[in-house]
Amino acid sequence: MSGHERKVPIRTCVSCRVSSEKKRLVRIVRTGDGDVVIDPSGKLPGRGAYLCGLSECTAAAIKANKLGRALRCEIPERLKEELKKLGNDED
């Protein structure tokens, strides 16, 4: 199959507004029943928002409620703690 290159999906971090490849971002999704979870596969159904994974970016998104606004819901404390841990692992 020559000449057929797949388009790489581009998404934007809700905090720093930097565009990047979808697979390089962390997807957070609000499912149909209202749960808010991290979606490592990037394929869960529901309203999604993306973070670049940098600790400063994640902290800013939580502090300014950018994530809650993007998902149109309140972000649970357990998820905020989980995201802070993720942010510390990334550079």
Structural features:
91 residues; alpha+beta; Hypothetical Cytosolic Protein, Chain: A; three-stranded antiparallel beta sheet; 3 helices; 31% helix
Q: How would you briefly describe this protein structure?
A:
This protein has about 90 residues and is α+β, with helices and mostly antiparallel strands.
Question: What does the model show?
Answer:
This protein is α+β, with helices and mostly antiparallel strands. The protein has one domain (10-89): YlxR-like (Hypothetical Cytosolic Protein, Chain: A), CATH 3.30.1230. 31% of the residues lie in helices and 21% in strands. The protein contains three helices and five strands, in the order E-E-E-E-E-H-H-H. The chain has helices spanning 55-63, 66-71, 77-89, and strands at residues 10-12, 19-21, 26-30, 36-38, 47-51. The strands form two sheets. A three-stranded antiparallel sheet has the order 4-3-5. A two-stranded antiparallel ribbon has the order 1-2. Strand 1 and strand 2 form a beta hairpin. The model has no long low-confidence stretch (mean pLDDT 92).
Quick one: how many beta strands? 5
Give the strand content.
15-25%
Overall 3D form: globular
CATH architecture identity? 2-Layer Sandwich
Counting DSSP H or I runs of 4 or more residues, the number of helices is: 3
What is the string of helix and strand elements?
EEEEEHHH
CATH topology: Hypothetical Cytosolic Protein, Chain: A
* Level-1 CATH class name: Alpha Beta
Q: Going across the major beta sheet, what is the strand order?
A: 4-3-5
Query: Rounded to an integer, what's the Rg over CA atoms?
Result: 14 Å
Average pLDDT? 92
CATH superfamily: YlxR-like
**Structural domains: how many:** 1
Class by helix and strand content? alpha+beta
Largest sheet: 3 strands, antiparallel
Give the distance, in angstroms, between the N- and C-terminal Cα atoms. Answer: 37 Å
Low-pLDDT sequence parts: none
DSSP helix fraction: 25-40%
